[in-house]
Amino acid sequence: MTEQEKKTLLGAQQGELDAVLMYQALAKAAKAENDKKVFLTLASEEGRHAAVFKALTNTALTPKKRNAVLLTLLYRLVGRKRLYPLIARGEYGAARNYQPLIERFPEIESVKNDETRHGDMVSELLL
Fold it and tell me: How is domain 3-124 classified at the CATH fold level?
């Protein structure tokens, strides 16, 4: 693994860890029961993604609360109709970012596919 690949994988691992806290916080803040359920599912799956990256990097990282705090605040300030599309966009962006890594690290393909599904799940909460 090159230094650049390791740096990219560590960034992805950190993002997945941070997403666990973010989705857990959104589950607590959400008013709709279905939103809470979806966010807890996403938190669990993001934890699995972090484990995939940890197996590749062989490095233990600590989740950062910044996004959890920020998105909970945004949820309260702008509401779900404006926030959820941003979250979905972030999930789709992660899938795009993971695509180039798949050839070298095939185990990331399931993570990429989950991220696309996550974007769809968050988008569907507004239907």
Answer: Ferritin (1.20.1260)
